[in-house]
Amino acid sequence: MNIIEKIKKITLEKMFLFVVIPIGIAYMLFMLPTYAPDESAHIWKAYEVSKGVFFTNGKTVVPKELLEYQQESLNTYNALKQSLDKKTDYNDTVEIITPAQSYPFFLYIPSAIGIAIGRILDINILYGIYLGKVFNFIIYVSIGYYAIKKMPFGKIVTFVYLLLPMILCQAISLSADSILNSLIVLYIAFILQLFYKEKITQMDKILCMILPIIISISKLTYFPIVGLNFLLINKKEFDKKEKYIVLGLGTVICLVSVILYYLYTTSFETAPAVKTYMEQENVNSTEQIKFILTNPIMYIKAMIKTVFTYGQYYIDTFIGSQLGWLNIGVNRTIINAFLIILLFSPFVEENDKELNKKQKIWICLLAIATIILIITGLYITWSPVGGEVAVGVQGRYFIPIVILFLLCLCMKENYIKIEHVNRWTAVLIIILNLLVLITILKFFYI
To answer: 18, 57, 234, 339: most buried, per Cβ within 10 A?
Structure first.
């Protein structure tokens, strides 16, 4: 078999590896540390976990040098080179309050391993951060490969989705969202696989209970996603007792876990900068909840106005129109090209399976409920009391959600037949990401 024939037979998950590894490494090298949204806070949390501290009251102790490495100062390749030449004093520490404390420790284990290695070798902490990025990226690539392989349909959708600029920028960062987003895609692929699987094992049933708990604890606004479990309610492999345990009791345990973990995080001390913002902008979660309960019509109007006001912004920033700290602007044509490919991806794939109307409606309802919860969460925690819109919401918050809508568009029939569609999709995604990388390169050279 010649090389061309071998290339033709490459599966989409293997093609994902060929594309994502070099492109992801390029993103890792070109995008400076701390330039993923809120990455500094995540670095502090990862350092804490690397020391074996898994539960705190919101305060953490980090090397003082980490406070120097912020997006305001570490903002050019020359600044990075100078910083890498310094020796980190791991004993010269300072106590800080990090906004990332509400994230559970297990999301930081990969990045914490990298930082721990750097600390043990007594090298500059930036090298440890890069090692952490590598471990996070390995998890992302592994889960992405598995998700594409196990998806019963929507493989091209998942392929394109995992190679969007914003998702890649998170994947090569120390942000906990990198691991969380990957876990949710894994969970979606896992449930859809079980839906068509002839034999469901005991381990499958255990994972049906564990994965939703992990996802919901990680970010409570994603709790509605666990409703995907109920797609399995008619599976013959589940007897009546197992349905009560896995689906009913599992959901209750998940909800209780979310409530308990949320109550635990309320004991954390608020970071000074956040506290100042809340005072200046009249942000008060308790009063905002009271406002919602006593003025439900105004709350609904605020939600609707938020979507109409920021809808385009959510779409753009979900794809990656503003990378870094929303200050690396990507050309509108590139973003539109990504959007077109993403929207067409469900319609160009030949599938032998698809969800029925009731299942699609259920999935869309779960996605809509999650979006409402995300916006409401920011309305409560980050918006002025009685505000006309919810502020603070970014498109990246919807990364685990949008794929659900796209998977519902996949069909067995009436798809657009394009010869070698996998290869053409890969080529276009590579070209577009190279253009994004050039934009990032220019930004840090200035």
So the answer is: 339
